[in-house]
Amino acid sequence: MGCRSTFSTVRIDPEILKICGAQTLRQVETGDSTFILLSYASYTFMWAKLKKFFWEWRGVWLVAPCTTGSILLLRLSGGLQFLEWQAFDRYLRSRPQLPTDERIVIVGIDEEDLRNIGQGIIPDRIYARVLQKLKAQNPRAIGLDVYRDLPVPPGTEELNDVFESTDNLIGIEKVVGDRRTEAVAAPPALKNKTPPQVGANDLVIDGDNRVRRGLLYLSDRNGEIVYSFSLYLALLYLESEGISPQMVEGTSNWELGQSLFAPFHSNDGGYIRADDGGFQMLIDYRGIGRFETVSLTDILEDRVPSDWARDRIVLIGAVGESFNDSYFTPYSGGVLTSPKPMAGVEVHAAVTSQILRAAGGDGALFHTWSEPIEGLWLLFWSGIGAVIAWNWRKTSGRRAVVLSRAIAPVFVTGILLGTTYVAFLEEWWLPVVPPFLGLAGSTLAITGYMAYTASKIRKTFGRYLTDEVVANLLESPEGLKLGGKRQKITVLASDLRGFTALSERMPPEEVVTVLNLYLKAMLEVIRAYQGTIDKFLGDGILVHFGTPAVGEDDAERAVACAIAMQLSIQEVNQKLAQLELPLLEMGIGLHTGECVVGNIGSELHAEYTVIGNHVNLAFRIETYCTGNQILISEQTFKEVGSANLRVDSQKEVKPKGVKEALSIYEIGALSGKYNLFLPKDDEQFIRLREEIPLLYLVVEGKQVSDKIFKGSIVGISVKGVEIRVEKDSPDSMPPPLSNLKVNLLQLIGNPEISEDVYAKVLDRPASKRTFYVHLTYKPPAVATALRKILTQALQQLEQ
């Protein structure tokens, strides 16, 4: 089949075409090549999609594994073990308690029994009588949870006879511990029987002094297996039902009835490197008071029915506090409550009951996951927290979204707790604390990343706006809304004199260096005086004071900022001089009035800015400035007050577009709390013996007029010159504060016409045909020539 017919029957995904390109398809000439190309295109397309997917969720791929690894390390160090025990206890106490186990009863020995007997210790005769009465009721097993390694006369021989004649009686011994101080031997009469009728009553106590694990058997110091007290009693009970334990070949597990018993391992559940000696299991307590209990006196005085113990397991042990045979368990209370211990005989009864339940197929054996599966469980919940938090970065600040951000973690935590609790009811102990920390940790990690990103945004905004504006934009519910409000502000407009012409002669790198030095210094001053930078206009800066919140001293602070900026420009010029770069002069205009302030624009682009004719008026006032001059409007002057201002001059101007003349004031100092002063510059013009001819044109806005005027320089100063017009004509005299473009015709060493020089006409009294100008821009050759002319004039003046 030809290439053309092949392609006519193949449908290609447009996205694949974008990736591979139509030109590649046109280069294919066979059907096999078409298949190869489409396969490659599909692969490329899928790979691009996959890369995009991984990039979009990069925070999840990074945070979830890192959080999981950190929590696993914390868990392996044992740092979470106590919390996981507390979670286990809470779940155990929270679940419905099982009903009373009628198969097991307790004969509890308390302080009242001691008072009835009249002795501080119960003699052997009493136990012999109790055992004979119980034996007569045909129980399936009797457990004497009382140490009787030594005789307590009277009645020792009588008790030994009962021991020897009772085949379903089990005594106790303490196997674990030092032989001299901790281990307790079994009653000799029971130990010497074949088989020995003795069980170990050792209990495993966790680091928080609670009993959560029970022993089924362990090895004594001679290496012989010793059944636990509880297991021995349970096996005697089950023996009559034909149930006996069976070892599972090749393992340490064994079967009893309908359940498989597996030993506890050191890292099962929430345990870390626990002692797993012997055959242990987690105790599934029935609850508190889940076994019928009578006193020793009740048995002695026949206060119980004659068949009370029939086919039951009877445990005899101390329940009074003075016997010091009580232990803290998960049912002893939480961290914030006073713990209540459980009698040791009741703990043994709970373990015995659990074995009977398990043998009957009623569960009762806790299961745990392997460590790899628990690691995946932790990674899953860390991922859930990361996904939720990462997804927040794309949301806006609407109330519904903020509410969902608050509810989502609570909802997911509820799912985690609910899932693990339901599993606990089914006898599965799943990790609770690690996944909760993974969920919270990954959420906080990504939230912290977003906060870091927000801080970078704040820092970026802070280059242009004050901290108050940034906070208003990022934190206020109204901060990002489009629109504005009217409020009185003070606008500051600054601009460098002659910088446009200067920058045209400089390499771009030098222009950037000059601007960076200048803007950095100005921004530091503006930030110090809490001004809001609206925008940069080339070498100009628009700043407003009184946004976002209006203050009492906005106008005064704006004037102080202007003076500080002019003082700072002197430091900038020192640095520029060291770099052999041109020096700068700046003019600043200020005006106060009501403007619209807010986020102006559309959903696609908006700016926090000010709009109004008062902004334009500040720019108009700035245009009247010469270098290093500050001019303020009458409104700003009134806001600050004349008492604190040093006014160096005052003039009336009529800017373009303004109907009435405006009073503007040149400010040289501000007293009071700011106390800032600009040095007075009394410029002295020196008469020249030889005039320098020139041509000049008036600059209106950005346009240069086409009418050329002739004149000559008759006087010179450091910053300006005095010009005499050629003809006594009103058109020849430029108005004060207007801008001129000047070309000198005869300079020292250069008979040709000079490059363009820019100047501003000073509002300074002169003769009928002369006026003064401030030179805002001088090309290097002109500047050098004028300095030489000034030097010669000074020398002639001194002679």
β content, as a range?
15-25%
Count the beta strands.
31
Q: Report mean pLDDT, rounded to a whole number.
A: 85
Q: Please, how many helices? A: 23
Detail the poorly predicted runs: 1-13, 15-31
Rounded to the nearest angstrom, the radius of gyration is 49 Å
Shape: rod-shaped
Structural class: alpha+beta
The percent range for helix content is 40-55%
Largest sheet geometry: 9 strands, mixed
Q: How would you describe what is shown here?
A:
It is rod-shaped and about 150 Å long. It has 799 residues and is α+β, with helices and mostly antiparallel strands. The strands form 6 sheets. Strands 16, 17, 18, 19, 20, 21, 22, 23 and 24 form a 9-stranded mixed sheet that branches. The longest helix is centred in the middle third of the chain and has 30 residues, at 433-462. The N and C termini lie far apart (107 Å). Helix 2 packs across helix 4 (31-56), helix 8 packs parallel to helix 9 (156-165) and helix 14 runs parallel beside helix 16. Strand 25 and strand 26 (703-704) form a beta hairpin. The protein is built from 23 helices and 31 strands.
Give a nutshell description of this structure.
The chain is an alpha+beta fold. 40% of the residues lie in helices and 23% in strands.
Keywords, separated by commas or semicolons:
rod-shaped; alpha+beta; six-stranded parallel sheet; 799 residues
Topology:
Blueprint: H1 3-8, H2 14-20, H3 22-26, H4 31-56, H5 58-76, H6 81-94, E1 104-109, H7 111-117, H8 124-135, E2 141-145, H9 156-165, E3 169-173, H10 188-191, E4 198-200, E5 204-205, E6 211-219, E7 225-227, H11 229-239, E8 246-247, E9 254-256, E10 259-261, E11 279-282, E12 292-295, H12 296-300, E13 313-318, E14 326-327, E15 342-343, H13 344-359, H14 371-392, H15 399-425, H16 433-462, H17 467-475, E16 483-496, H18 499-505, H19 508-528, E17 532-537, E18 540-545, H20 554-578, E19 586-601, E20 606-611, H21 613-623, E21 629-633, H22 634-640, E22 645-653, E23 662-670, E24 676-677, E25 686-700, E26 703-704, E27 709-716, E28 720-725, E29 739-744, E30 757-761, E31 770-777, H23 780-798
Parallel strand pairs: 1-12, 1-13, 2-3, 2-13, 3-4, 19-21
Antiparallel strand pairs: 5-6, 6-7, 6-11, 8-9, 9-10, 14-15, 16-18, 16-19, 17-18, 19-20, 21-23, 22-23, 23-24, 25-26, 25-27, 25-29, 27-28, 28-31, 29-30, 30-31
